[in-house]
Specification:
Number of strands: 9
Helix content: 25-40%
Number of helices: 11
Structural class: alpha/beta
Distance between the termini: 15 Å
Shape: globular
Strand content: 5-15%
Order of helices and strands: HEHEHEHEHEHEEHEHHEHH
Strand order of the largest sheet: 7-6-5-8-9
Largest sheet: 5 strands, parallel
Bound molecules: phosphoric acid mono(formamide)ester
């Protein structure tokens, strides 16, 4: 379709095509002259109903490097009435004839709802606990560059799986490309029916990390926790925080990832986050390249392209 709303619905060849295209943009991004003209004359609006550092800035940089006019709308979620206001917002923006809308929203499904009300391409930059497709693409690109492949790797996704759109998109993408995906979390942080996603479920880091090639940590999303999901942050770190001792359960050449923002000392120890096995900074670089690839691919579907 003309939108990118999730990894769900993308075929393995489509995913690999986007990763291959992103490789070309990594080369461009390391040059002094970083601009090309794919989106020249086009208007891209980034509308984030929820906070972002990495995704918003990298979509802005990506659009500008492709030659688009990029506008950032910042929306304070406190002034937002879900549903009605979202649709009004969509209709208002649509009247400005944008070519691409990049949208983040705190409600699952909100980006798909908005996409139905506008005429332009819509990219999901994260919707509630549903999907964050460009994050999964940048994670896959980072893994492929460091391990040479995705198929056959064992990837342990650890922590707050329940609230994580990153986990959901990664489970779909890595599964589609043939990785063995595990989730590692206490029962309170696992969604019901997670077994049906084709993942192995582990409740201890010792078993979940055993033989893992990639250890992907998730942020503990305390802002989405109303009740008692964890006994205390200290206890959570003791059992599920990735420190050097727990990392030894994984393969000696295992690599560590985190989508950011990190809570150091909550789900990951600083020494590991900044250590020799960490890919966290490389993930950010891949984020710009992947978002350029996604925008470039969508540009080809625009009218008169
Ligand atoms: N990983 C990620 O989506 O980070 P931001 O919330 O800072 O965009």
């Amino acid at each position: 379709g003309r939108d990118l709303l999730g990894i769900e619905g993308l075929s393995a060849p489509e995913i690999v095509g986007l990763l291959d295209l992103a490789e070309e943009f990594i080369v461009l991004n390391r040059q002094i002259e970083k601009k090309c003209t794919t989106l020249r004359g086009r208007t891209q609006i980034n509308i984030f109903f929820e906070a972002s550092t990495r995704t918003q800035s990298s979509f802005e940089i990506a659009g500008k490097r492709l030659g688009a006019d990029v506008m950032n709308m910042s929306v304070s979620s406190s002034s937002l009435k879900k549903g009605e206001t979202l649709i009004d917002t969509a209709i208002t923006l649509n009247a400005m004839n944008p070519d691409i809308l990049v949208v983040r929203h705190h409600a699952s499904g909100a980006v798909a709802l908005l996409a139905r009300k506008v005429d332009c391409c819509v990219v999901n930059a994260g919707d509630g606990a549903h999907e964050h497709p460009t994050q999964a693409l940048l994670d896959a690109l980072t893994i492929r560059r460091n391990k040479g492949r995705i198929a056959g790797l064992t990837v342990a996704i650890c922590g707050d799986v329940l609230h994580s759109r990153v986990a959901r998109s990664n489970i779909l993408l890595l599964g589609a490309l043939g990785a063995n995906v595990r989730v590692v979390a206490p029962s309170t942080l696992l969604p019901a029916g997670i077994e049906n996603f084709g993942v192995e479920v582990h409740r201890s880091m010792a078993s979940g990390l055993d033989g893992a090639d990639i250890v992907m940590m998730l942020r503990l999303q305390r802002e989405r926790m109303a009740g008692s999901f964890i006994p205390s942050v200290k206890e959570y770190f003791h059992f599920y925080g990735l420190d050097e001792d727990k990392l030894r359960y994984a393969r000696p050449d295992a690599l560590v990832m985190h989508p950011g923002p990190m809570n150091r000392g909550v789900e990951i120890d600083s020494g590991v986050a900044d250590g020799p096995q960490s890919l966290i900074r490389e993930q950010v670089e891949m984020g710009v390249a992947v978002r350029m690839a996604v925008l470039d691919a969508l540009a080809r579907k625009l009218p008169n392209a």
